[in-house]
Amino acid sequence: MKQLDVCLTPELLHLHNLSNSIVVVADIFRATSCMVTGLAYGVKSITPVATLEECRLLQERGMIGAAERNAKKEEGFQLDNSPFSYMADNLIGAEIAMTTTNGTLSITKAKATAVKVLVGSFLNLGALANYLRSEVYDVTVLCAGWKGRPNLEDTLFAGALADALQEQFMLLEDGTLMAQRLYQESRHNLLASVANSSHVRRLQRLGIQKDISYCLQTDLYDIVPVLRGGKLIAMP
């Protein structure tokens, strides 16, 4: 039977064997929520890169540059890290290069050895679960965390996906069981569950309350972003 595992931070990824595993990267506040939103609103592709320098180079080559560090937009780039910025009509058909503090770094770490890399958020939870049920591979949920440390919102998402797939996948590792239990205890009020989390406090200090509520909504979009040729696209 297939197995679903949870990696609570990219710093622990080397402990996981990804050779037979689809990796689902989750950076709920806010990178993967932006990616799902953008592709749902008609963005053609999003190229995730680890560094500002890579993103700047792609912007100079004609892509729209999106860059965030420490929850703030970096100077010299066109887009920030708010999902609401990815709903604009002028982005329909656009190719975006994106770098963020945690999410894009997690994608670049996973892509070398994973069978494939998908992007997950609460916004596309149901679509993602439905797709993974049809796959023959194991699944590893990679929580982007915050600068190498676990965080609450990504762990909650991992638990939600594990809970949705518990009939089709074995949940054997303690990290997976912890995430599932946390989600089960929090599922009826996710916003309250993350109210005192470090990243929520960080975003609130920047006046970004609406992003928090938005990113915790479930099943707004029926798309599954997949990494192909270095670009995230909506799976056909």
From TrEMBL:
Signal peptide coordinates: none
Domain of life: Bacteria
UniProt record similarity statement: Belongs to the ComB family.
SUPFAM superfamilies: ComB-like (SSF142823)
Pfam families: 2-ph_phosp
Keyword Magnesium appears in the UniProt entry: yes
Record keywords: Hydrolase, Magnesium
Cofactor needs: Mg(2+)
Name of the protein described by the UniProt record: Probable 2-phosphosulfolactate phosphatase
Keyword Magnesium part of the UniProt annotation: yes
Substrates-to-products reaction catalysed: (2R)-O-phospho-3-sulfolactate + H2O = (2R)-3-sulfolactate + phosphate
Entry's EC annotation: 3.1.3.71
One term of GO molecular function: magnesium ion binding
